[in-house]
């Protein structure tokens, strides 16, 4: 069986001279990604809504990588003004990894008028990626996003774009991930200067899987560690995306049943052309709404 160290030697290379920004940098997968990137020599931008937790993680990383260049930038994806402020501090990045996510949380409408689960998982990161494209083009940069198997749980509904009328957490989350993945496939379809990698880590024990009631989570927490991959291994699918692009409707994830094993590329057949075109059109509308929201707050 291949060891992680052997996998890293085969599929990664030095990131010295590269600045990597990671959303959700203090979560389970985020923490592993930042450690991998630091070990490969990258300069890091930790994007997280909790400043104290972000600084604590920065100090922990520096204890292992004392020469690393690491800075913290606050980012609350429910607040587009915060996203805009963060963009002002990302003018020198080479890689943008959108890893942050929210599943079953208390729901409300954000400043944009969109449901907060939709804004966290799609609207805000999509807005940021589009705004970052000029910088990334100049630097020959890379965008890596974390998709999800949940994107298969339902099709989009143009009459309820953000699924604010739905109550099933899996479908609300899955709808946002469906937009994220397929809107970016369309956006990058003719892109030549910036690399896109759509990835998914499978199922692992992170903050996003701790939404169950505490008694239930206490029961499943330890079995999950045995049944599913740990974050350290699950993060490899996302890490591979830093070095290898995905083509249209291709993603990188665990090789066995999309749950276990080291990452591999596979084709997606989960969204037909007409729905993809609708997603692209609606994504443009979401972007314009986000832009107007930011402009009104200036």
How would you portray this structure in words?
The protein has 298 residues and is an alpha/beta fold. The protein has one domain (4-297): NAD(P)-binding Rossmann-like Domain (Rossmann fold, 3-Layer(aba) Sandwich). The protein contains 9 helices and 8 strands. Helix 5 runs parallel beside helix 6 and helix 6 packs across helix 9 (273-297). It is globular and about 50 Å long.
Strands ordered across the widest β-sheet: 3-2-1-4-5-6
The percent range for helix content is 40-55%
CATH class: Alpha Beta
CATH architecture: 3-Layer(aba) Sandwich
Give the overall silhouette.
Answer: globular
Q: Indicate the radius of gyration in whole angstroms.
A: 18 Å
Overall structural domain count: 1
**Rounded mean pLDDT score:** 92
The computed structural class is alpha/beta
Discrete helix count: 9
Q: How many angstroms separate the termini?
A: 55 Å
Number of strands: 8
Percent of sequence in beta strands = 15-25%
Low-confidence stretches: none
Biggest beta sheet attributes: 6 strands, parallel
Give the name of the CATH superfamily.
NAD(P)-binding Rossmann-like Domain
Order of helices and strands: HEHEHEHEHEHEHHEEH
Q: Which topology does CATH recognise?
A: Rossmann fold
């Amino acid at each position: 069986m291949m060891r992680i160290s052997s996998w890293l030697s085969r599929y990664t290379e030095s990131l010295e001279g590269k600045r990597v920004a990671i959303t959700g940098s203090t979560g389970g997968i985020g923490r592993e990604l930042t450690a991998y990137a630091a070990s490969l020599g990258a300069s890091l931008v930790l994007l997280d809504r909790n400043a104290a937790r972000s600084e604590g993680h920065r100090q922990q990383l520096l204890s292992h990588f004392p020469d690393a260049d690491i800075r913290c930038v606050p980012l609350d994806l429910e607040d587009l003004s915060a996203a805009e402020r963060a963009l002002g501090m990302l003018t020198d990045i080479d890689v943008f990894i959108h890893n942050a996510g929210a599943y079953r949380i208390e729901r409300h409408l954000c400043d944009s008028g969109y449901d907060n689960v939709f804004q966290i998982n799609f609207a805000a990161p999509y807005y940021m990626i589009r705004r970052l494209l000029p910088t990334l083009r100049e630097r020959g940069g890379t965008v890596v996003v974390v998709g999800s198997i949940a994107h298969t749980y339902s099709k989009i509904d143009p009459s309820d774009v953000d699924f604010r009328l739905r109550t099933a957490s899996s479908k609300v989350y899955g709808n946002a991930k469906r937009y994220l993945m397929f809107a970016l496939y369309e956006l990058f379809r003719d892109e030549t200067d910036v690399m896109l990698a759509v990835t998914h880590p499978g199922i692992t024990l992170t903050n996003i899987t701790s939404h169950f009631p505490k008694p239930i989570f206490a029961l499943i927490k330890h079995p999950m560690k045995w049944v599913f991959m740990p974050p350290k291994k699950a993060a490899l699918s996302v890490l591979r995306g830093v070095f290898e692009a995905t083509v249209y409707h291709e993603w990188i994830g665990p090789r066995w049943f999309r749950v276990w094993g080291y990452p591999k590329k596979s084709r997606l057949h989960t969204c037909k052309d007409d729905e993809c075109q609708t997603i692209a059109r609606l994504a443009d509308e979401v972007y314009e709404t986000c832009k107007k929201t930011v402009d009104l707050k200036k």
